[in-house]
Structures are given as C-alpha cells and as structure tokens.
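Figure 3 (text version): structure tokens given as input.
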C-alpha cells in the first residue's frame, strides 16, 4: 500500500489492519529504511529508540506470540500543521497469549510519513500496564528486540 499519494492517516489505518491480521512482515514493509520508532515512557532495560527498518522488524518479530490483538476501538486521528504528521489516539484490545488475560491498552502515537512510508513513530504507551500482569511479557519482548 505505501505510495506517495497515500495520506498519513490512510497509511496508519492500513498499518492497524496489518497488525490485526498479524502480518508483521507487511507492517514492517510500511517503514522507511531509516525510520525511527521511539518509546518515550520506556522503563529501564527496555528500548527507548529503534533506528532503521531492521531494528523495528527485530522488535516486532514475535509480537503476535505475546499479544493477540482483536481491535483498535476509539481510533481518532488528528492532523497537524505538518501535513506529513498525524497524532493518533486509540485503544488496543485483545488478550495476552501466555495467560489468556485481557489486554486493553491506551495509546497515543505521533507519526510522520514521507513518500508513503513511516519515518518517525513516537509511541506513548504505558508499559507499566503490561508489567502488572506478571506474565513475563515485557521480559520476553525485550529479549526478542535484542536479537
């Protein structure tokens, strides 16, 4: 789907569909080779910044093994004064694979798109919400991102 005529909002909506389909390879394909993903609220020991498509791919590789996403309700996309940048608010709901426990996380993302690909993605999610489950999810995801 990446194309220079794809709006940032359309690209973002498409990326969410790919995550729901557990198509991580295609999701990573939406990224620029030099794209940067940041987690401003990452706790100690977790990555705060991923530089390049390969780093994003390594981080996301095992995501479906940890979280079974079912929906992104309450999606709101806000345009900014920069036509390449959007702010997205949403919830991600599903279940944690290891325990079957419900997963319900609120996200805010600041996303910049150039030439139909993600170049910057600042993900303001609360990793403490996952740590409270005690199922090892954050440890497993952290280890998989180090590969």
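Below: residues designed for each position.
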């Amino acid at each position: 789907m990446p194309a220079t005529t794809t709006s940032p909002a359309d690209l973002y909506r498409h990326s969410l569909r790919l995550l729901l389909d557990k198509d991580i390879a295609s999701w990573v394909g939406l990224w620029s080779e030099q794209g940067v993903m940041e987690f401003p609220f990452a706790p100690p020991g977790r990555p705060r910044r991923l530089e390049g498509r390969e780093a994003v791919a390594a981080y996301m590789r095992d995501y479906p093994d940890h979280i079974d996403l079912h929906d992104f309700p309450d999606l709101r996309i806000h345009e900014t004064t920069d036509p390449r940048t959007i702010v997205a608010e949403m919830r991600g709901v599903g279940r944690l694979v290891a325990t079957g426990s419900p997963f319900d996380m609120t996200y805010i993302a600041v996303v910049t798109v150039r030439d139909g690909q993600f170049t910057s993605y600042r993900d303001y999610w609360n990793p403490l919400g996952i740590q409270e489950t005690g199922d090892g999810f954050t440890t497993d995801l952290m280890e998989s991102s180090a590969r």
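DSSP finds six helices and seven strands in the chain.
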